[in-house]
Specification:
Shape: globular
Number of domains: 2
Radius of gyration: 18 Å
Strand content: under 5%
Largest sheet: none
Number of strands: 0
Distance between the termini: 39 Å
Number of helices: 9
Length: about 190
């Protein structure tokens, strides 16, 4: 929870990917309250009992969302998908507005790779997804591949193409959210 709050404040893309990791971790723990507390909460150093209870409740709220949304075995909570939708809407605006000039140049390097990514990540169960969600799915797959000890060249290639565009989009999102950028300012 503490990490999620920090990531949400600093970088929306890292926040989304972190929540996806938490979802998979909770699934691996089979949503067991005892396992969640023992594995994720109890061993956290420097927390008093109230803080531990708050963190445990946060994990259990995610469990409840996964169950409520029918995503016990796979999928991502709607909250993160809505955030990706917001990022995609920002992407579409940046593709048109003067403030998006640098972003468009960054995105241009990625756009040629999108058809290949769609083929690699083809999942008929997810249907049509935005380019922004496709990038997040590719980043998360790359993260999982790295955890499992996958080939560094594939990981490096994917990250080199996707990370700059997603990173810039997330940075602009944060600035817009904090009122540091006005998208419509000339």
């Amino acid at each position: 929870m503490l990490i999620a709050l920090q990531k949400r404040k600093e970088n929306i893309a890292e926040y989304i990917l972190y929540l996806w990791q938490v979802e998979d971790l909770l699934r691996a723990l089979q949503f067991s309250p005892e396992a969640i507390y023992t594995t994720l909460v109890d061993k956290t150093a420097g927390l008093d009992e109230q803080q531990k209870e708050n963190i445990f409740n946060w994990y259990m709220q995610i469990v409840e969302l996964l169950r409520k949304e029918g995503k016990e075995s796979k999928g991502h909570i709607d909250h993160t998908l809505h955030l990706i939708g917001d990022l995609h809407n920002l992407h579409l605006q940046l593709m048109q507005l003067p403030v998006g000039e640098h972003y468009r140049a960054t995105y241009q390097r990625l756009s040629a790779e999108l058809p290949r990514l769609r083929m690699v990540l083809d999942d008929s169960e997810i249907g049509e997804i935005s380019d922004t969600e496709l990038c997040f799915r590719a980043l998360y797959a790359t993260l999982l591949y790295r955890i499992k000890g996958g080939g560094e060249s594939v990981i490096s290639d994917t990250l080199a193409v996707i990370s700059p565009a997603v990173g810039e989009l997330a940075a602009i999102y944060g600035k817009v959210e904090r009122g540091e950028i006005d998208l419509f300012e000339e």
